[in-house]
């Protein structure tokens, strides 16, 4: 947290300089272009703080057999992202993901698309998900982020993660011939952004989110009093869960630790109230003594709540 405060202080200093220059030279067209470049630079520095990419050459906990990829391609510059069956395509990036089959329930029809936190890769997330799979009936698809793990790309940004999330949903549905009524979306921490984004745009059986936040702007505003507020006033929004949650029609389970100081549980409480105005099929579970990074200590309790709220995933005869 101290390092984050330092980084935000540095960005704030640059912002103040940016504002002074704007006031002095805002009438110059050339200078406006220069200011825009400064703003883009500051946004890129914020992305580095928000997404501290953790690259590696190979995963330790995911076998080569479980590793899969799909291509994100563009038909032509300026057009929408297309899938890999397009003609005259330009390769843009290769998205990596893991497909974990459930050995405890090999005949399950249900599938979870999982988005991990910003301080881990799908390799670390696999431990948590596999433990859930011991008592819950689902196969899992773990989606990697750009510059995380073995996903090589030039940058990590919310825009790319959101693009990948929608394309991952479509790819998984088509490639594995899974009906949308058999798909659950699951996100943790920063991963609740792409998870909520998908659920707001696509049909799915249910949404499970752990340690959700209203938006990254509101989170940064709260992290470092004063400094965070000023930075949030000038930054672009990344994941606006507060707005996207209003579009969700499927059942939603919120899980949050009462002792979470990085993303306070008030964020999930707020989001659940927002959703209750649109969708009555939502439930909030607050866990005493659970903080932000000790969720593996609560695997049994988390599994229990998921099984209780989504009976399709529970053990037979539960």
Automatic annotation (TrEMBL):
The chain crosses the membrane at residues 6-25. One of its GO terms (molecular function) is hydrolase activity. It comes from the Eukaryota. Residues 163-292 form the Dienelactone hydrolase domain. Signal peptide: none annotated. Pfam families: DLH (PF01738). This is Dienelactone hydrolase domain-containing protein. It comes from Paramecium primaurelia.
């Amino acid at each position: 947290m101290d390092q984050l405060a330092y980084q935000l202080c540095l960005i704030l200093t640059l912002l103040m300089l940016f504002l002074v220059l704007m006031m002095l030279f805002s009438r110059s067209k050339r200078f406006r272009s220069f200011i825009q470049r400064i703003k883009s630079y500051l946004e890129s520095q914020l992305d580095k703080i928000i997404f501290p990419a953790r690259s590696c050459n190979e995963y330790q906990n995911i076998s080569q057999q479980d590793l899969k990829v799909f291509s994100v391609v563009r038909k032509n510059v300026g057009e929408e992202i297309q899938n890999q069956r397009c003609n005259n395509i330009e390769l843009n990036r290769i998205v990596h993901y893991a497909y974990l089959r459930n050995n405890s329930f090999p005949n399950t029809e249900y599938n979870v698309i999982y988005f991990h936190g910003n301080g881990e890769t799908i390799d670390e997330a696999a431990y948590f998900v596999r433990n859930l799979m011991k008592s819950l009936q689902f196969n899992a698809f773990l989606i990697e982020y750009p510059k995380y793990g073995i996903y090589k790309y030039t940058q990590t940004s919310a825009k790319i993660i959101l693009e990948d999330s929608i394309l991952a949903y479509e790819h998984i549905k088509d490639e594995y011939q899974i009906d949308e009524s058999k798909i659950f979306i699951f996100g943790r921490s920063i991963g609740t952004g792409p998870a909520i984004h998908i659920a707001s745009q696509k049909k799915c059986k249910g949404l499970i989110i752990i340690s959700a936040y209203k938006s990254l702007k509101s989170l940064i505003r709260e992290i470092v009093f004063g400094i965070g507020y000023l930075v949030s006033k000038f930054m672009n929004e990344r994941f606006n869960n507060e707005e996207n949650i209003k579009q969700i029609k499927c059942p939603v389970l919120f899980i949050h630790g009462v002792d979470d100081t990085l993303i306070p549980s008030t964020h999930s409480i707020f989001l659940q109230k927002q959703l209750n105005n649109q969708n009555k099929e939502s439930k909030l579970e607050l866990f005493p003594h659970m903080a932000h990074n000790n969720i593996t200590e609560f695997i049994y309790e988390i599994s229990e709540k998921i099984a209780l709220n989504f009976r399709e995933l529970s053990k037979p005869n539960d």
